[in-house]
Fold:
Amino acid sequence: MSTLRFGYGTNGFANHRLDDALAIIADLGYTGVALTLDHNHLDPFAGDVAEQTRRVRARLEQLGLGVVVETGARFLLDPWRKHQPTLLSDEAGPRIDFLRRAARIAADLGAECVSFWSGVKPAEVDDTTAWRRLLDGVAAVLEDTPARFALEPEPGHFVQHLAEALRLRDELGGPEQLGITLDVGHCVAVEPFDAATCVRQAGDLLFNVQLDDMRTGVHEHLEFGEGELDLTATLAALAEVGYRGLAAIELPRHSHAAPDVARRGLRALRAADWLADAERTVRADPARIRTLFPAVGRKAGRSALDAHGLVHGTVDDKARVRLLAALKPEDLAAEVPDLYRYGDGAERRAVLRGLHLLPPEAAGTGVRLVEDALRANDIGLVAAALGPFAAEHLDAHTWRHGVLKCLFVGVPVAAVAGLGDRVDDELVRMVGDYAAERRAAGRDVPSDIDVILQEAGAQ
Structure:
């Protein structure tokens, strides 16, 4: 396993007292917390903020939690206007004062950094003026404080891309105390590169990481697996660049189910971290796949990726295919036969789903494994066997009988890769005969027969 340190954001525990939130986060197994200063969570404008900060620091130390300070509270500075004023506003003073207060609190907490963003550019302010205001505001915040600050590119804000944040730092002269907060979900939403690439671009300027899933073009924080983030590759990149800061889950709209969401989040992080380490191990020592392959279900999970795990497979299918993909082509060709021969049903299923990775000279091996699976009565093997490899390499006779077997055993034909390309008159005849036999016997006719006939008619 890597040495990554996982935390959780208190803005995802907005309905909990801060002390309760910290206790739950620690009890679940996190080792850090991203603490958003807000009305009910260490209000920086409270008269007794110094004493509150001392108590919070003692509690963090008691629980063994590291901490970063987050400054994205929605209505802390203005009860009417979300996130206002900003460093781009005509009157940026309250924002600068707030960030200075956050720096003092961070110092008193022993926090690793203070995370902040640029804010949305007012419509009446031109880009040149906004950029100057941002430069001046950040420079003012950095004066006379030892605290480290991390600028976060935020979708929809004036600085929404990593390149813009890095440019701002350069134009300020590259101050050592100014780095980057990278929300990996934002990379999915708005960056031209994936999150792993963004991690490498930020490199040792990465002070703080926020973890969540997102979809392309949509700024909505999602739980892992609900968007398009490659979590395993992202964690692998963090380990690769030697990141030592906190990586905290950022789900500010999930407070209604905070403990359960946090529990699921850490489970996903640990699974992805294990898989990233397993990929590194297999690349370095291909033979290790023989011992890692059986462990995948226990470490990564076994849940289905669709209703019954027949169309898209399961979580462990996907993880095992990643291990296969980590092998060089010649090593893959050498390992696949025995991984299938000695594997249990789940391991065989994953081998079948990964056959498209085989080099061309090993296609014969893959065909033999597909033929073996199609003779089985295990519907998981039948579904996995008719993937992209079979669509490309299986002869017409065997492929048609494979499709027919799907109808026999109840495998959705959605699991058959390339159906629309390979369906032919002979398959239509076979399917029609099967339907007629079912009707003559007074039995239901599988609805997937209509799917096959529709594909044939579309040609």
